[in-house]
Each structure stands twice: as C-alpha cells, then as structure tokens.
C-alpha cells in the first residue's frame, strides 16, 4: 500500500473515532439530564417515603404494644379460668361424693322403712286379722247352729237340690 492510501485510511479512521466520541458525548449529556430528572423525582419522593416509613414504624410500635397488652390480658384470663375450673372441678367432685353418700343413706332409710312396714303388716295380720277371721268363723258356726235349731226340721229334697245347684 502506498502512503497516500494509508493516510486516507488513517484519516477516515480518526474521523470515525471523532464521530464516535461526539456520539458518546451526546449520550453522556442525555444520560446526565436523565440522571438529574431522576434525582429530582427521588428527592421529591424521599420525604414522602420517609414520612410513610415513620408512620409505619409508629403503627408497628403501637401494634406491638397493643398485642403485648392483649396477650397479657388473655394470659390473665386463662389463668383465672384455669383456677375457676379447678375450683368447679373440686366442687363437683365434692358434690358428687356427698350426693352418693346421701343416696346411700336414703336407700338405707327406705330399706329400713319397708322392713318396718312389712313387720307392721305381718303383726296386724297375725294380731288382728287372724283372730277376727277366727271369731267370724266361730260366729258363722254359731249362727248356723242357731238357725238349724230354730228351724228344727230337716230341709226338703227340693231345697237340698236347690242349695247344691247354687253351690255348683
């Protein structure tokens, strides 16, 4: 290659490099403008974000306090409930035991009362009813004897037959 063509080639190459440098400079200027616009937007948004973060932090702290209070109250209620359930359980156990004892006593009293009633009925039967039946039997016999003596005659066959038919 000759020297002129090398110089032309180098000149074209330097021109291309210069054009690319200008293009890079334009790109960097536009990039700087974009960065400044973005920085302005961020600087406008930053206070809002900081206030939002501060209010979120306050809400979180307030929620933590309320959750701690609710948890403490719930634990107190659970402790009281456990204690009361223990008392109710012991009371129910005591009442059940007492009721069982009372039912046993009632059963014994009922058995004793029934035995005494049975004894009284037996005594009444043997002491009053049996002699009354015997007296009633004796009086029936005496009446029959007196009736027979007062009639003085024997019953007729027709009357005997009628008595037997009535008996049958």
Secondary structure layout plus pairing:
Elements: H1 3-151, H2 157-167
Description:
- The protein has 168 residues and is mostly helical.
- The longest helix is centred in the middle third of the chain and has 149 residues.
- The chain is rod-shaped, with a radius of gyration of 64 Å.
- The mean pLDDT is 87.
Give the overall shape, derived from the CA principal axes.
rod-shaped
Q: Terminal Cα separation, in Å? A: 171 Å
Rg for CA atoms: 64 Å
Low-confidence stretches: none
- Oligomer description: single chain
Beta-strand percentage? under 5%
Strand element count: 0
Which structural traits does this protein have?
mainly alpha, 2 helices, 0% strand, 168 residues
Short description:
With 168 residues, this protein is an all-alpha fold. It contains 2 helices and no strands.
